[in-house]
Design a protein that fits this description.
Shape of chain B: globular
Number of domains of chain A: 6
Number of helices of chain A: 40
Strand content of chain B: 15-25%
Number of domains of chain B: 1
CATH class of the largest domain in chain A: Mainly Alpha
Keywords (chain B): Endosome, GTP-binding, Hydrolase, Lipoprotein, Nucleotide-binding, Prenylation, Protein transport, Transport
CATH architecture of chain B: 3-Layer(aba) Sandwich
CATH topology of chain B: Rossmann fold
Pfam families (chain B): Ras (PF00071)
Order of helices and strands of chain B: EHEEHEHEHEHH
Radius of gyration of chain B: 17 Å
Subcellular location (chain B): Early endosome
Distance between the termini of chain A: 89 Å
Structural class of chain A: alpha/beta
Structural class of chain B: alpha/beta
Oligomer: heterodimer
EC number (chain B): 3.6.5.2
Largest interface: A-B, 46 and 44 residues
Organism (chain B): Thrips palmi
Largest sheet of chain A: 5 strands, parallel
Number of helices of chain B: 6
Distance between the termini of chain B: 47 Å
Amino acid sequence: MSKASTMQKPSMEPRFAGITFFATSHVGDVCGTNGLPLTPNSITIYGRSQILRTFSHPNLCAYLDIIRGKHERTMIVLEYYALSLSSAQCSISEQGIVKLCQQTLQALAYINTFGVVHRCLAPDNILFDSKGNVKLFNYGLYYMTGQGGDVSFPIGNPRYTAPEVFLVDSQTVSGPKVDVWSLGIILAELALGVGQLWPELKLAQLMRKVLSLIHCNSDTSVLSRIAREHSCWTKYESLPKSLVALINSCLQLKPSDRPTPEELLKHPAFLEHDIANLEIHPFERVEGVRGKEHALSSLPLQELFYLWRLAGGDVQAELKKQGLIRTMPTILSVPRLVLLEGNILGKRRDQTSLLDLKIIPLSLDTLALRLSNVPVSAYYPLIETRSEIIQDDDECDAANLPLIIRERDTEYQFRRIVLFRRLLEGYPYTRSAIIREARRDIPPLYRGAVWAALLEVEGDIDAHFIETDKETPTHTDRQIEVDIPRCHQYDELLSSREGHRKFKRVLKAWVETNPQYVYWQGLDSLCAPFIYLNFNNEAKAFACLSAFIPKYLHRFFLKDNSAVIREYLAKFTHIIAFHDPDLSNHLQEIGFIPDLFAIPWFLTMFSHVFPLPKILHLWDQLLLGDASFPLYVGLAILQQHRDALLSSGFNECILLFSDLPEVDIERCLSDSVSLYCCTPRSTTYRQHERVVVKTPSQKNRPHHPDLEMSAQTVAELQAESCPRISGADLLDLLDAVKFPRPKVLVIDVRGPELYNIGSAPGSINIPHTRFDWTAEIPQLPSCPEANTLLQNRGKILVVAGQGDSPQAAQVAQVLLRSGLPRVCILHRGIDVLQLGNLLTKPSST
Amino acid sequence: MANRGGPAQRPNPQTQGKICQFKLVLLGESAVGKSSLVLRFVKGQFHEYQESTIGAAFLTQTVCLEDTTVKFEIWDTAGQERYHSLAPMYYRGAQAAIIVYDITNMDSFGRAKVWVKELQRQASPNIVIALAGNKADLANSRAVECEEAQTYADENGLLFMETSAKTAKNVNEIFLAIAKKLPKNEQASGAGSTNQGRRLQELDGSPKAAGNCCK
């Protein structure tokens, strides 16, 4: 017994709790006027409630998550404290009451600025943290249910509900003043020390009682009447005048006479006493003596909840275990009779669908146990200096497992989350460290922020977004409106009404701020990942989209983008030929050209062709690469289906890619990176690429312009089967110091007389005239040089001719047809090597 | 409800006689239901939230017609006006076209008429054109009268049907009607799939290609 108690048992007070309710379900399969089915109310609630997660106020419990269950069930996870005003068993001092009132009003005034009204303010929704401060709970119910419109139960405890709520129909929306009344009743209970008012009344009587208060007038205030009814007149008389005045302001019958929370905060009662340091409760120290706080308590709640779920936490299962979710056998819910028009008769009312206000605290013990062997130092990783004493690299077992598993490993994610939080706090100064860590992986919890950092989103993005016109109707609205309800609609967030509104605003803002561009179908898909990750921050979603497009899709959304797209696709064809000649030859033969299948790939950077989880992983890597990296992703996708493609004809191939087949994204990405790394940069040169101004610190090669790439027309690009390499890249590859084992072989196709005057070091000479160009498919001539060539398979084979004569391209095509990989053409021919003083006299063989 | 109406009848290999292969293209304003019609015809499915088509999609379906088997190679094109420059790549060489409009949207009918004119001017002279007034299940929000479309179709020698990809109404029928109207003699069997690719590419590089988006 003693052993167990002395050991550091990982045990923590619950920090968050779950509540649940049902949304009203639409009767039958009813379609809207546009022919699309109506959005389920639970999805509407889901989208609307996201904003609550951004609320941050010292007197509010934070919303951590909103979860949709089956049958229109919504589950909500909120910050939680065990002590509530209704569970508190001792009386509060008069000054304490004033302070409670002030803190509650501050919280209400805060939510009011977002248009949110509590509407069910009651003692069980007023919690206290360990310092005795007010923490309002469940304040978003009225807002998230569309002012009660999406649920079938009434919102608010009748005892605390303002009388005007009972007098208007259910369509009328309550304003902030109803909460002030509720607060007034709560204050009255506390001040008079009577516990609950009218404890013996039944529900209907209670409502009548509240309405009867209307008979009060200027002579008898509501408070005095309550005091008399509860026979505590003496207590009433003894109350400080300022407190009585405060309560009377709250309990004004006419809403027009009653102040809003904002107005009431200016009440003189709050000035009278120094209440800032006052403790509302004398009993809160009980928590304090429990001893040292668990290290986990230092984590932000959002992280704690995320890790709790990774450690196996399941809100629905917890609620079920606690009896809050009861399931009824399906047979019992079948109606007796269904009319042809869809009317349902004789269905038993399911009691479980009514609102149950029970709060289920979610235990943190499993998580604490799971992370019990994590040293405290791991909570504060060093990001600036690498300590030799503290070896904190790779001590987590999961570090070398596949990405999918790493993302689900509690301890690994704990370390990544803590690290990235600290790095993001230091952004933009920590940008290079963020890039370095992102190469390993990006923790899903902070993906939105990490992407924004990778895209170099900085500055006052909110102001920029606010001043952008997102409302004025334009002629692209119709297209945007028909596209949005079809874009990633399997996702709960993006299919919610709130999601659609955000889509529209961000897209309209983008069109508005980019007058040189137009809205192309596909921009919606491109926008989706950013909205998904920044659902509560449209400005950031917009800033990310605005940074992403110039980086990867420069000029793709011009009104006439054909030259840009054609160039990109021509480069894609070249890259396939460069790395996979067999595949390239087959696809060329059957006419499976990228124009027929790859436009949606590149125009949307794959966001139109993959589901969201795959896009997120793909873009994690894409954002670390440059504008040519997507070409390699495209090639890696083709190569994953290489066997199927090689054995199929045109129809089968195009059918295979009409509905993109299963692609292993992690493998695809590691393949793309290796392909990217072994390809000379200049082979993917595009004239429509955005020119990035190099900073002076970057390596600057002062090359002659002829050594660099220059623009080719689309027709020229399409006429050549292989990519071109710049003189500068070739010089670099020929650098014997850098590459002691040559990586490149130059094939000089000029006549021997020119070749013998001077050529590239280590080059071979196969003159253009040696080929039989009259043959239907010209072959590689048989000569010793051709053998040398075949022996050097795998090296980068640079075909070089005289200037830009077409001979080099022709020979390159023959090499490609013979199945040789890594064939490219020297841009501007062998002459450019003269500029590098690299022409050497070939040694006689 | 959404799955009513299976895919078109597949041929029985034992009884098939002649095999004909036709290239068919779908054109029309965006969100009128082009992809949904094809999906219903080819797979017998219907998705409420059919994703928008970018570029084009390709599908095939075979129907039986007495003694002939007709194989459709269907190019389903993007509807947005901006993708117009890509369209010739798909409709050139097509033997049949379905021009789709949405019966609840008058503008889409106007757009369909523009497509008819373009095909009559640019496409193969013998192309069989069908006009499909889709979303017939939404007849209570109708904006284009059936008679008006029928008159227009008659004047221009088009096949015409009101269809619903959702309820499957007239979907197989319109493809069958096209199959019946197509000439079967010149299309010998054995027009191999590889030829299809060649054909597309050759046409793409032909002098006429100056009119498409690689200009």
